[in-house]
């Protein structure tokens, strides 16, 4: 699959104001400065679609794009950004939590983790939250171009080891680089396969909100 058209739809701070839930939706989220906007731009073949910045915390709302008139992409605020007030941090947390738990057409959450650093508690806690609430997810390791193949393999091994204490089976994991395009095809193929499942689950000819929620499995 190759994205031919990506259009901005909305920017909101309340899940109830998101676009009509009539298409499968894929959310991208991760710690601030993980390379989320750059990856979104690479996937959509548009270097200016999502706002990128050297300053963390650029995304401060739920940003929606409609892709090829067949599915939605949601860009969520990064978590873990320290240079905001406690009140603002709690507001972002509530906004994101409500969206993840109540958006009916959410097909998958792509959680981005930085391959250059060891597994972070913030990431593991967020992944655990998704699992505990049966929110489908896929992990994406970012910035693979910044380190060698051996370092990528070691980073992946460390993440899998950290997750294996609670997860069986482990969530799917895709290695990526917004700079070189590594992982782009795999991510889009994952979305294409998920879209087919969503379509099969809907009644033919009937346009209505889809609810493709699967079950994320944790040990215990």
Walk me through this protein's architecture:
The protein is an alpha/beta fold. The protein has five helices and seven strands. The chain has helices at residues 36-43, 86-102, 121-132, 149-164, 184-201; strands at 6-12, 25-30, 62-67, 71-75, 106-114, 137-142, 173-175. It has a seven-stranded mixed β-sheet, sandwiched between helices. A hairpin with a 3-residue loop joins strand 3 (62-67) and strand 4. Residues 53-57 and 203-218 have low confidence and may be disordered.
- Please tell me how large the radius of gyration is: 17 Å
Give unreliable regions as ranges.
53-57, 203-218
Helix content: 25-40%
Strand content: 15-25%
Order of neighbouring strands in the sheet with most strands: 1-3-4-2-5-6-7
Structural class category: alpha/beta
Strand runs, count: 7
Mean pLDDT: 87
Query: Terminal Cα separation, in Å?
Result: 37 Å
Helical region count?
A: 5
Elements, N to C (H/E): EEHEEHEHEHEH
Overview features:
disordered C terminus; seven-stranded mixed β-sheet; 19% strand; alpha/beta; 220 residues
List the helices and strands and how they pair.
Layout: E1 6-12, E2 25-30, H1 36-43, E3 62-67, E4 71-75, H2 86-102, E5 106-114, H3 121-132, E6 137-142, H4 149-164, E7 173-175, H5 184-201
Parallel strand pairs: 2-4, 2-5, 5-6, 6-7
Antiparallel strand pairs: 1-3, 3-4
Give a short summary of the structure:
Helices cover 32% and strands 19% of the residues. By secondary structure, the protein is of the alpha/beta class.
């Amino acid at each position: 699959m190759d994205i031919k058209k990506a259009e901005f739809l909305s920017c909101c701070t309340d899940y109830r104001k998101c676009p009509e839930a009539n298409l499968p939706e894929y959310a991208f989220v991760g710690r601030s400065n993980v390379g989320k906007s750059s990856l979104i731009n690479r996937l959509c073949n548009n270097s200016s679609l999502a706002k990128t910045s050297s300053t963390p915390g650029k995304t401060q709302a739920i940003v929606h794009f409609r892709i090829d008139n067949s599915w939605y992409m949601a860009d969520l605020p990064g978590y873990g950004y320290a240079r905001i007030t406690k009140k603002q941090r709690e507001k972002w947390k509530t906004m994101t939590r409500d969206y993840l738990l109540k958006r009916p057409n959410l097909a998958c959450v792509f959680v981005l983790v930085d391959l250059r650093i060891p597994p972070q508690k913030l990431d593991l806690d967020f992944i655990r939250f998704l699992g505990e609430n049966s929110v489908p997810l896929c992990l994406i390791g970012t910035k693979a171009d910044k380190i060698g193949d051996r370092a990528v393999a070691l980073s992946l091994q460390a993440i899998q080891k950290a997750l294996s204490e609670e997860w069986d089976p482990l969530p799917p994991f895709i290695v990526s680089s917004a700079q070189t395009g590594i992982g782009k095809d795999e991510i889009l193929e994952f979305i294409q396969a998920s879209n087919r499942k969503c379509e099969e689950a809907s009644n033919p000819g009937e346009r209505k909100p889809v609810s493709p929620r699967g079950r994320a499995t944790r040990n215990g």
